[in-house]
Amino acid sequence: MSIFFWGTVFLGGIILVIPAIHHLRLRFARCDPPTTQFAVAVIVPCKGNNDPDFENNLLCIVQQAYDGPVTFRLCAESDQDPAVPTMRKLEQRFENVQVCIAGLSTRSSQKTYNVLKGMECVTDTDIFVIADADIQPHSTWLQELVAPFRHPKVGATTGFFRRIPLSSDFHWGNYLAGLFGTFIISGISDDTLKGLWGGSLAVRKSVMDTYQLYERFATEIVDDIAIMHALHQHHIARRYVQSCTLKSYCHMSVSESIEWLVRQIQFSQIYLKLPYALYVLVGIPYVAYIFLAPVLVLYGLLAHDLLALLSGAGFGLSVVLTGTLLYFSAPVNPASVSPGDARYRLLPWLLATPVAFICVALALFKTFARVKKGVLSMHWRNITYLVDVKTGKVKKVIR
Fold first, then answer.
1. DSSP string, 47-95
2. What value does the mean pLDDT take over residues 267-295?
3. Which fold has domain 33-264?
């Protein structure tokens, strides 16, 4: 029984300490004053118009309070994309908005290809900003995201997102999606890891030029990790900008939420093999303990075994504490929140926490099953990509 006890201490402790350290980072995070001194080009890759509140998302992106030189490139794969009418409307309304039709990708993900073609449309800029079409930023987001570039050693900055459910009703998919997002931000906020989120990311154009990142964009599955690799390889600083945690409206089914998580884990499976191995070595035993904990509690009560009772109850308490820390781990900038926005409720969130961890294990098993002979199959926005699991190079695009 002592094995179960120490397993509880180790697994419960290691999962609990990750969001705890994240909270400490947020408390002591540096904040640079907003600036408009840089020339900025904002690239927004779009595919379809199914993102909740899609038109308002784009409107909030292009209506930034930024007095410096700024242009916006809204990029889609073809004129037939359902997103294009909304994009054209904004192009007609704002002089600094331009629609870029990228064409169909054949050697990279469509999103990365859209970003690449959007960058090619820009002639003069200091900073590239990549923004997803499902975020809804506040008016000073751009000023805050580029502020750390005052420091010459900073090569990239990143924000993150916090899911906001479209309604206050409980939907498993929405709560799971919210939990999955908070898992990831706990690591993204560490500047030493240099993690980047491609939905609210800024990078110096000089970094893109010097380290030939355009060539990587042309052949790889994801853009942000290609930039992250360059930062690590060349010892370039990156800053996490806490005030750029933005809301992203969420209306997802359970299967959509799990598929999103599978894709995030697949990125680690390709590019971040050590963290991926840790996910497997820690995540799967952790889920086993989720099932084992109530058994230990029951056994402890019936057999009057205090160690078994402490093991099961202690692990259950660690799951509750972890869920609580995750609930508060991604505070959206208040300027980004609207009065009518729904919120996740704490009790359903805590009830969904162990289920979310079980889904993480399911997602890990899915990543195993989708690799055959060194080729990974990834599903993304109704497109299937066959990707070299060692390099991230796209071998085939199936539409």
1. --S-STTHHHHHHHHHS----S-EEEEEEES-TTSTTHHHHHHHHHH-T
2. 94
3. Spore Coat Polysaccharide Biosynthesis Protein SpsA; Chain A (3.90.550)
